[in-house]
Write a structure and sequence with these properties.
Length: 201
């Protein structure tokens, strides 16, 4: 089940622009707009190697130093409860690159359904409730596509017997691919799809 449940590790967004910054980097805003919403790998999940997963993401306010997004991932065929809840900070990494820094959130159960509940105003997440898990993805723009992977060789984890997790992400205009994999201390893959990324549309 671990191999089927490792989905997207990365990418983040929020749509608040402050007068001090005038405007966030154009690429940060573009990535934010593309990733906000509800996505599923419906077509791909016909293959028994992949679980039907729903990803819901929406802007949240944390600080005025970047854009932030709250993200839920739910394995639809197993539960209505998200198995992963994160907050991502999107910032410029220079040129056409975007850095997504990933955080856990305290009392995450209380945030379940945030994207459905808050349709009139942007939810506020207290900065002190974010837990830095030393994980980030750098996305570089190639023509009309953003593509990248985890920096520093991967992110520390204990999930499913792994000691590190890697994520490779490709963001299109109307969806994204995410290939998350976990590796043990001997660098053997212990979870995540083998054939290719999850395809969210």
């Amino acid at each position: 089940m671990y191999k089927k449940l490792a989905v997207v590790a990365a990418i983040g967004i929020a749509l608040q622009i402050t007068t001090a910054q005038e405007s966030f980097n154009e690429n940060v805003s573009e990535v934010a707009n593309r990733l906000s919403g509800t996505y599923q790998n419906t077509k791909q999940a016909k293959d028994p190697s992949y679980v039907l997963v729903k990803v819901e993401s929406c802007p949240v306010v944390v600080d005025n130093d970047a854009k932030y997004i709250y993200v839920e991932q739910t394995a639809v065929e197993y539960s209505d409860t998200p198995y992963r809840q994160r907050v991502y900070r999107l910032s410029s990494a220079g040129n056409d690159s975007v850095l997504s820094t990933i955080y856990k959130i305290e009392n995450q159960e209380s945030w379940t359904g945030t994207c459905q509940k808050n349709t009139r105003r942007t939810p506020v997440v207290p900065a002190e409730s974010l837990i830095d898990i030393k994980c980030a993805v750098q996305l570089d723009k190639f023509e009309n596509v953003y593509h990248g992977s985890t920096i520093n060789g991967g992110c520390p984890t204990t999930f499913g017997g792994a000691v590190k997790a890697t994520s490779t992400v490709t963001i299109y205009e109307h969806g994204f691919d995410a290939w998350d994999r976990g590796y043990d201390a001997s660098d053997n893959q212990v979870w995540g799809p083998v054939a290719g990324p999850y395809q969210f549309r």
